[in-house]
Request: fold
Amino acid sequence: MMSDGELVRQTLTGRTQAYEELVRRWAGRVTAVCHARLGYAAEAEDLAQETLLRGFRSLASLADHDKFGSWLCGIASHACLDWLKSRERTQIPFSALSPDHQADTFAGEPEADGLALDREEELRQLLAEVEALPEEYREVVMLYYYEDVTYRDLAQLLGVSAATINARLTKARALLRERLSKKVGR
Reply:
């Protein structure tokens, strides 16, 4: 498998298929960064696409080709900040991404439908609480759990130590436990 740096070099020589591979590798993480920064599904998807396009157009400005991923995630962060500053948005919460449970329920089984509805409500509450986390915690939760990024990769991507990633995830989990236990009255 080619490194990101090699794919960047190939793209710069006119082989645009190499950038397609970079998009496949990084689109999920870029989308997760946008979700973490914004908390709005539709806008996050749009800004992820915009980020990938900006990355392609600005690729020649990348000094260290091997740092493509963190550079691209930086572009995503800036795109999100620009969007937030513009205030031209409609609010669609991340919780709108919850799966269409109508298709997942067991038709004709009332007990199963009730369980599916309970799970749907629990998922909705969890996602709402993830959205409400401060950005530094929301970002690591989104990348770690939704994109399955390792502590080491998260640390490199966000420019912090693995210990900082561990501390942020620990704090985020504690906040989520506290908030969710208050909602269920435990």
Observations:
- The domain at 4-86 is CATH 1.10.1740.10 (Rna Polymerase Sigma Factor; Chain: A).
- The two ends are 50 Å apart (CA to CA).
